[in-house]
Amino acid sequence: MLSARIRKTFAPKPDSAGFTLDIDLAATQGVTVLFGPSGAGKTLVLDAVAGFVKPDEGRVMLDDDILYDGATGVFLPPQKRNCGYVFQNYALFPHMTLRQNLEFAAERRPRLERHRRVMEMLDKFRLTEAAGRRPHEVSGGQRQRCSIARALIGEPKMLLLDEPATGLDAPLRAELYEALRRVKEDFRTPMLLVTHDLAECFELGEEMLIVHQGRVVQKGAPQEILDAPANLEVARLVGAFNLLEAEIVTLDPGRDSSRLRMGEFELNGRYFPGHLKGDRVTLCVRPEQLMARARDGKPGTNQIPAELVRVVERPHGLRLEFTSPAFSSAVRVNVSRGDYEGMKETREWVVEFPVGELRAV
Amino acid sequence: MNIDWFPLWLSLRVAFLSTALALAAGLWIAYVLANREFRFKDALDAAVTLPLVLPPTVLGYYLLVLIGRASPLGRLWEEVFGAPLVFTWKAAVVAALLHALPLLVKSARAALESVDRSYERAARNLGASELKIFLRVSFPLARRSILAATALAFARALGDFGVTLMVAGNIPGRTQTVAVAIYDAVESGNGAAARVLVLVVSAAALAILTLANRLTPEGAARG
Hints:
Chain A is an alpha+beta fold and 361 residues long. Chain A has nine helices and 20 strands.
């Protein structure tokens, strides 16, 4: 298990603003994902754990080993840290064959064991055939598996992965996820993975930490975060929400209900803890939680008339974009292709906000 | 025509030895300059580069002061080896070294710095010692550029004139290198001998240059 408290400040320079990393995290079994925009400091966390960067203060512990402790001045060099690192570009040594790459990494193991270990890893990661070739002579998938095998061959206590899927096409991405799931099952090495891809968090992560400007702004299971973003900032970073301004008109904790005003329309919602009547809030609702319908006379409960401005094709259906004077920004609604076929001719639309799905942040 | 080939052989021997010494010291200095941050880094860089820009007579003067018979270093040499260093062919090696070293350090440093840092990080992460990283990762990846630099350093060492003249002198059959011999031949009106030596040296330099260009990775040195 990794537990890290890392603080590091970079003074502002003429060509760049200053930056402070102040992060507290624990990564246990399985995959912990650091999610955030570029420049949030995610890779810096990996580098501090691997020992490439020395924090200003804090403490990094891996199982019972102290890797870094600012108070006592302990700072283990990268060589002694025993955590595997899968680099963004894989960093396989280009002048060595895949086998030599693994052998290089196996050299800190006892002599008798090395050969067997290399054979075993080649076999496990389906690299035996390509073992005699150099990185530029093998496929992207083989390179990727080799870099994971190389990081694991020394039996590290932790595996660090820096945006391993960036720049991969869809089949390679699927292959990578498959390989990482096998690592999770076969090796049981805890992993700390950096990404800015939300789908990847769901694909791999048990625990997800949202990093923004050097801080963790929310942590939890990916589904939990998607269901309940802690604040507007998180909702924006996750990027999967319609964010709409509204005003709370009434709040009734007894009946677990509320009324919200959006423009000239009012919506029924659940009770919003922590808010007061009259508060201006941001409604946070995912495109798949909303419904688009043909307008049938006067808009029904929780329906707001809107104008369809765009239809976007998506892998699993369509996304409709609506505008209305009541909406502070365009509202996206996901529909299936079949549903859309049935209402294609619709002239006047309403967007329906299901009562149970409305969240205020 | 009677040509004394001794200067040519002496020059080759001097160039080989000084290039070998430059390689040993230069790679180490280049590695330190490329990888470490320390207080007098710029000063070390400047000191190593200085011979490239100083007039040979100035360098020769410094060398005489540094390794002359009256200097501590010169006296130490005399204690250990029983004979002075200056005005022997070994002094010519020192003179040539002074010219070969900056060339080598400059190019080797650039070559080492051009190696993608992530390879070194990966090696470090895999538990490799700094020595192992240098021998198995950084050096092999920069090898061609370093070999090209070595060839150029060799050519430079082969042709030194001014510094060699000042610290090794012009003793035919003992310290007279090919560059000095050509000067000597022209001065004494022996144009034929001068022409032959000039042609031989030019051919050797051209061959080395061709080799160096072949070794240089595409686009690296040509920018």
